[in-house]
Design brief:
By secondary structure, the protein is of the alpha+beta class. It contains 18 helices and five strands.
C-alpha cells in the first residue's frame, strides 16, 4: 500500500522543492561559509609555500542570487527532491584563485591534486554564453574549474563534517577573473536589462585586451627568470628562487604535460639564507646534480639533500628553517613534539645522516668496482642494479624502505622514533655486510673499512 506523503514534505516536481531547498540552504549557510574558508586557507598556504603568486578569495553563494539560479534551472530540471537540487548546484561553496602569471596553472593543478580530493576531472572552461545578436571574436572566459573536497585526514575530530562538502575552485589569471566578473553580471545576470550589441562588442574587445595582457604577464615572468640568471643577482624572496629553479630544471622535462614538482620553496629559501647560499651562481652546481624524474621527490628536497650531503654541519640550520616555517602553518598542532625536542632530534638526525652518507659513499665505490660506469653519487637505481647483479635481491625492498624513512626524517614529514631509526641503521649495515660476502677482494677491503667506521659511529 502506498504511503501518504507527509504534509511537511514538498511535492516531487513542484516549486515547493525549490523553496524547501532555499530554506534549508539558509539554515546551513554558515556551514558553506566555513568550508569555503577552510578550503581557501589551505590552498593559499600551499600556494605561498610553493612560491605561486596569486590572490585567493572565497564565499558561500548568496541566497538571493541562488534563488534566481535555481528557479531558472527548475524549468528544465524538474527537481523531485531537495537532494537533487544540492547535487545539481556545484558552487554553493566557492574559492577563486587569481594567478599573477597564467603559466602557473599547471603548478596549481598539481597543488590541488596533492592537497584535496577531486570529485571529478577539472573542466578547462565554462560553456560559452549563447547570444543571437552578437557573435564573439575572442574566446571569452578561460579558466580551470575544479570540484574538490577537504581531505578527512587533515581535519580535526570536530571538523570531520566538512569533509563531505564539495567546493568549486576556479583558477584563472587576475585579468581573466576581473573581466569575467564584469561579463557575468552584465550578461549572465542582467539586472538592468539585456545588454545591447554595442555592450557585447565592448566586452568582446576587453576580452581581447585581457588575452593580450596574459601574454604580457607570461613575458614578464620570463623576464623575472632571466634576471635571476645574471651572475651578480641574489635571491630576494622565495618567489625569485622558485623562478630560477623552474627555469633551470624545466628544459630537462620532455613534454608540456610532464612538469617539475618544485615543492616547499619557502623552507629551501630560509635554509639557504641561514647558510648564506642565496646567490644563483652558488646554487647552480647543486641544481646540475638534481635528478629530474626522481619518483616524485620535489626538486627543493633534492637540493636540500645535496647541500646537506656536502656539509653535514648544515643539518641544524635546515631543522631550524623547517621549524620556523612550520610555526606559521595554521594547521600545525600546538603540542607538536618536534618543537619540544628540537635539539635532541638534531643530534639523532645528524648521526643517522652521517651513517647514511657513509653507506652511500661505500655503495658508490663498490658499484664502480663491480659494475662498470659507476657515478660519484649512489642512486636508488645503482643500488638496485648492484644488489641484483650480486643476486641478493632480498635486500632491495629493505633498502627502499630505508630511503623512504631517511627522506621523511630529513624533510620532517615524520617525527624521530629511536626504535625505528636504530632498526633502519641495522638494515643499512646488514646490506653492506651482505654485499661484502658477495664481491671480490678489492671491493671487500673497501667494505671492511666502511663497516668498521659505520659500527664506530653507530655505537
Amino acid at each position: 500500500m502506498k504511503q501518504e506523503k507527509s504534509s511537511n514534505q514538498p511535492e516531487p516536481g513542484s516549486i515547493d522543492v525549490v523553496n524547501e531547498f532555499l530554506r534549508r540552504y539558509e539554515r546551513e549557510y554558515d556551514f558553506y561559509q566555513e568550508v569555503s574558508r577552510q578550503c581557501a586557507q589551505r590552498l593559499e598556504t600551499a600556494l605561498e609555500q610553493n612560491a605561486i603568486r596569486a590572490i585567493v578569495t572565497w564565499r558561500a553563494k548568496r541566497s538571493d542570487r541562488l534563488r534566481t539560479k535555481v528557479e531558472k534551472r527548475y524549468s528544465t530540471k524538474n527537481y523531485a527532491t531537495t537532494e537533487q537540487v544540492f547535487d545539481d548546484i556545484v558552487d554553493l561553496a566557492g574559492v577563486r584563485v587569481a594567478l599573477y602569471f597564467p603559466a602557473d596553472r599547471k603548478k596549481v593543478n598539481q597543488i590541488i591534486d596533492d592537497n584535496f580530493e577531486l570529485c571529478h576531472a577539472p573542466k578547462d572552461h565554462f560553456p560559452p554564453h549563447e547570444n543571437d545578436t552578437y557573435k564573439k571574436i575572442f574566446q571569452g572566459y578561460q579558466a580551470v574549474h575544479y570540484r574538490v573536497k577537504l581531505r578527512a585526514d587533515g581535519l580535526g575530530d570536530t571538523q570531520q563534517r566538512y569533509a563531505d562538502a564539495a567546493v568549486e575552485v576556479q583558477v584563472a589569471s587576475v585579468l581573466m577573473h576581473a573581466w569575467s566578473e564584469v561579463e557575468h553580471d552584465l550578461v549572465y545576470k542582467p539586472f538592468s536589462g539585456d545588454p545591447s550589441v554595442d555592450e557585447h562588442a565592448i566586452l568582446d574587445q576587453l576580452n581581447g585586451l585581457v588575452m593580450t595582457g596574459e601574454v604580457a604577464l607570461e613575458s614578464l615572468q620570463r623576464a623575472v627568470q632571466a634576471r635571476m640568471n645574471k651572475a651578480d643577482s641574489i635571491f630576494k624572496s622565495h618567489y625569485d628562487l622558485a623562478a630560477y629553479i623552474y627555469d633551470a630544471i624545466r628544459p630537462l622535462y620532455d613534454n608540456d604535460t610532464d612538469d617539475p614538482v618544485i615543492g616547499r620553496v619557502d623552507v629551501l629559501y630560509r635554509f639557504l639564507a641561514l647558510i648564506e647560499l642565496l646567490k644563483p651562481e652558488e646554487l647552480r652546481r647543486h641544481i646540475e646534480r638534481v635528478t629530474p624524474h626522481s619518483n616524485g621527490e620535489p626538486i627543493s628536497e633534492q637540493l636540500v639533500d645535496l647541500i646537506i650531503s656536502e656539509d653535514l654541519s648544515r643539518i641544524p640550520y635546515y631543522i631550524c628553517a623547517t621549524d620556523e616555517l612550520m610555526q606559521r602553518n595554521p594547521y600545525r598542532s600546538s603540542d607538536d613534539e618536534h618543537n619540544q625536542n628540537q635539539t635532541k632530534n638534531a643530534v639523532a638526525l645528524l648521526k643517522f645522516i652521517t651513517l647514511y652518507n657513509m653507506f652511500s659513499s661505500a655503495i658508490s665505490d663498490i658499484y664502480h668496482i663491480v659494475v662498470e660506469g659507476g657515478n660519484a653519487r649512489a642512486t636508488s637505481l645503482q643500488v638496485n642494479e648492484l644488489l641484483t647483479y650480486l643476486k641478493i635481491n632480498r635486500y632491495i625492498r629493505m633498502f627502499h624502505e630505508a630511503v623512504l624513512y631517511r627522506n621523511s626524517l630529513v624533510h620532517q614529514k615524520t617525527q624521530i622514533d629511536e626504535t625505528e631509526l636504530n632498526r633502519t641503521i641495522v638494515v643499512l649495515r646488514d646490506i653492506l655486510t651482505a654485499i661484502q660476502d658477495n664481491v671480490s677482494e678489492e671491493a671487500r677491503n673497501r667494505l671492511t673499512q666502511a663497516i668498521s667506521e659505520f659500527s664506530t659511529i653507530e655505537n
